Every structure is written in C-alpha cells, then in structure tokens.
C-alpha cells in the first residue's frame, strides 16, 4: 500500500472522531457543567497518559517487526510479537494499580474538585484504572498491525474508538444523567470491544500457532532496549503535554480547566495531518534507513515541506477566527476567556506539527535514546517555566509556556537531523 494511501487512512481515522468531538463538547458543557467537563478532560488525559506503561513496546514492535519483514527472515516474528504483547499486558496491570491507588487523593484533594463532585470523580478514576491495561495491550496490537502496514484496519478501529470517546459521553448523559462514573464505564467498555477486534486482526495476520510460541529472552531484551528509551519519552512527553491542566487545577481550581483544555484539545486535534503522515512514514522509514539512506533523506525532506506548507495557512486561519469560532460554538462568555489562548497556541500548533517528522525519522533509525534525552532536557526547563508563567499570567501564561516548549523541541530535533542522522548523506529532496 502506498505511503499516501496509508496517510489518508490515518487522517480519516483521526479526523472523523474530531468531528464528533465538535458536537460533543458544547453538549457536555451545557448538560454536565464546565467543572465536570473539565474533570472529564482530565480523565481522558489520565487514560492516555497511563498508556505509557506499555514501555514503548508498541513503537518498538512496529520498528522491529517491520525490519524483520524487510529482511525476509520471518521466523522470529511470532516470538517477537508474543514477547511484546505479554509485556504490555503485565505493565498495563501495574499502571492500572497505580492509578487506582491515586484515585482517592486525586478525587478528594489534589484536583481541588468541588465537594459535590468529589465522590463521582473518585469512582470515575477507579473505573479509569481498568482502562490502563486495555490501553497498553491495544498499543502493542496496533504496533503489530502498523508493522504490516495494515493502516486500513488500524484506522477503522481508531475511528470507532475515537467516535465512542466523544459520542458515548453524550449517550450516557441522555440515558443516565450527568454522572461522570457512568460516562467512564461506557468508555472502558468501548476500549474492551476495540481490543477484542484488534486481537482478532493480529491473530489472523501473524503465522499460525504464534500464540504457542515461546517468549524469547533475546527478543524481550531487543524490544526493551528500544522500548526503555521510548518509555522515557512516553513518560516525559505526555507529562509535559498533560501536566499543565493538572497544575492549573491545583493552582486555580478545576473550575477554570475547561477554558484551557477545550482550546488545547481542539487545536491538538488539528495535528491529525502530521500525525497521519508520520504514522504511515515510520515503518517505511524504518525499512528504508536500512537499505537506502539517501532515499530516506529525500522522503524525510518531502514530508517536512508538506507538513509545513499545510499547517501555515491552517494556523493563521485558526488564530484569526478564534473569537468568532468560540462564540458561535460555546458562547460569548467562553470565547472571552479562551480566544487569546487559541491565538497563542496556534503558534505552538505550527511548531509542534513540523516536529512530528524529524521525531519519526530519528526513532525510525532506532535512536529512541536521542529523543528521550531531548524530552528530559525540555521537561527540566518547561516545568518551572509553566509554574512561573501560570502564577503571573494565568492560563494564558500556561499557553505561552507550552509554545516555548514545543519550539525548543523542534529546534533540538532539527539540529540532530542536520548534525547526525543525515550528516553523511548527499542529495536532498527531489
């Protein structure tokens, strides 16, 4: 399947749920209230963040199975797949236990939730803990499917889960009223169903009898050597992406979180274009890096230009129409408090979108250590900067801190590409 067809599948798979979210956000804000909706966005973030307990094995499975398929030596792929999936299940269970242990202090103390919402938040977090092992195993299964470049199946399921992520809360409110734990219970049931369907696809894709293959120590070591550094990125990067909303809740209260998270969620959904391209690009680059580094460089440069040219007009239009768009969508009061955040974040949207391509290229070459070190460095600067700007400039300051962080990330990635990854390769894009 062509790179562009895979990209189109990824774009549709990520973009369609976004359209459901456009309808769901104002409905939920009206029917459960701004504070409860803010808590729901935190739960969405927690389920995603605790997916880091896959230890980077989803991406490692994609990279190493794709390389194995390119080498025509498929004999170790069943062992590799089983080893990776077994580890994702075990680590997901650990992650679920961690979130369950944190549910009470999060719900009753740390998030500064209003007293009438505290018990509902606590119960919702306990239910969300059940979703962590489902998320980690699902990430591993998706990694296997992407190694085989089966982006059609991956994205049909992604569309279903994404639509459920936004659509089921509306259904829950309509059936059961404004109960957070009922919403989360339906979300977990949807993840379980998608996991079962992913398992069936992977079961049919891998050689017959792969589930009976032994877990090989060398395969586990090979996956974990890549995945260990991926884990550092998977811990630090989502922490930097999601920490702002938790810090806002802790400093200013959960009641204002939605004014920040709604623009953030909408704008980051616009990153579907670079995300779609780089998801398709990753297994192709992993193979091409081994066989033709010059072709890999040309593929990388074409992709970077395409992303930049697509995002510039999108970001300009988003910034220019921020107040009007929010007023029509969520009302004048919401727009008054959030439009400037959209303007600031539009700059970060451009920087972050371009960074997707060098990030994918560096990891496709097996250099997960490089991106992990960058993320640690960025976090050490970003966290104190976030507290400082939030304290003096409120939620707009949090948006400025995010833009500075993603700009720093892009600069480091481009510098590494130029000085290391393609340093000895002649010839640019054609």
UniProtKB/TrEMBL annotation:
This is Flippase. The keyword Cell cycle does not apply. It comes from the Bacteria. InterPro entries: Poly_Biosynth_Transport, Polysacc_synth. Keywords: Cell membrane, Membrane, Transmembrane, Transmembrane helix. The lineage of its organism: Bacteria, Pseudomonadati, Pseudomonadota, Betaproteobacteria, Burkholderiales. It comes from Candidimonas humi. CDD domains: MATE_Wzx_like. It is a multi-pass membrane protein. The chain crosses the membrane at residues 7-29, 41-62, 83-104, 124-144, 156-177, 183-203, 246-262, 306-326, 338-359, 380-404. It is found in: Cell membrane. Pfam families: Polysacc_synt.
